[in-house]
Amino acid sequence: MRKYFFRTLQRNKKDPKQGYNWGLDLQAPHLYTIIFPFFYKESVKMNSFKKVFTAGLAAAALLAGGMTASAGFQEYPIGDEQEDTVNHFKVALVYFQPVQMEPEGSMLAADKADIHMETDIHATEGNECGFGIGEWIPYLTVHYKLTKVQTGESIEGVFMPMSADDGPHYGANLKLLGAGTYECEFSIDSPARQNYSLHVDKETGVTGHFWEEPVVMKWTFDYVPRNW
C-alpha cells in the first residue's frame, strides 16, 4: 500500500502542468487500499463508541432504578463500633424498620414494634477460640437495657440469634418509649454460658479461653419516631 501511495505522489509532482499537486488519482485502484481501511477503522471506532455510550446509559438507568427501589430501607448506626481487645471480638449496633420473622411469634410482631435493633459481633485478630477474623461468634447471650434519659424509664431483654441476607447476627423488634435520648447497655456472656465447649487437648485443641464474666458495652443515641 505504501508503494502505490508514493507512486501517485511522484507522478503528480513530475507533471509540469500540475506542479506540486499532492492530490490522489481517484481512478487509481490502489487508492482504495489507502482510503477504505481508514474509513473502516473510523466506522468501527464510532460503532464502538455508540455501543459503549448505549451500555453506559443502560447501566445508569439500572443504577437509578436500584437506588429508587432500595430507598425505603436504611440502617441507622448507633455510635461507633467497639472492640474488646482482651477477648478479641468487635461489636457494631444498628437499627432500622421492624421486620417479619419466622417462626411467627418468636419475637414482637413488626406491626407492634418501633424498630428492629441488631448487633453484629465478629472475631478479631488474636481470637484463639476457633473463630477466624471477621467470623460471627455464635452461642452468645446478648442482654440489652435501653434507658430513656428524659424519664429514666427502661426496657430490657435478650437479643435472639437470627439470619438475614447479610448473614447471622443478634437482634430483636423493639417497642421504645417515644422520642428521646437513649442510653444502651449491652451485657454479653460468652458461648460457655450455653455449654459451648472448646477442645483443649494437645492434638486438636485451641489455645484461647472464653471470658467468665459478662462483657459490658455502652452506647447512646437519639431516637426520632419514623413512619416506616
TrEMBL record:
InterPro entries: Metal-bd_Tp34-typ, Tp34-type_sf. Keywords: Signal. Belongs to the UPF0423 family. This is Fe2+ transport protein.
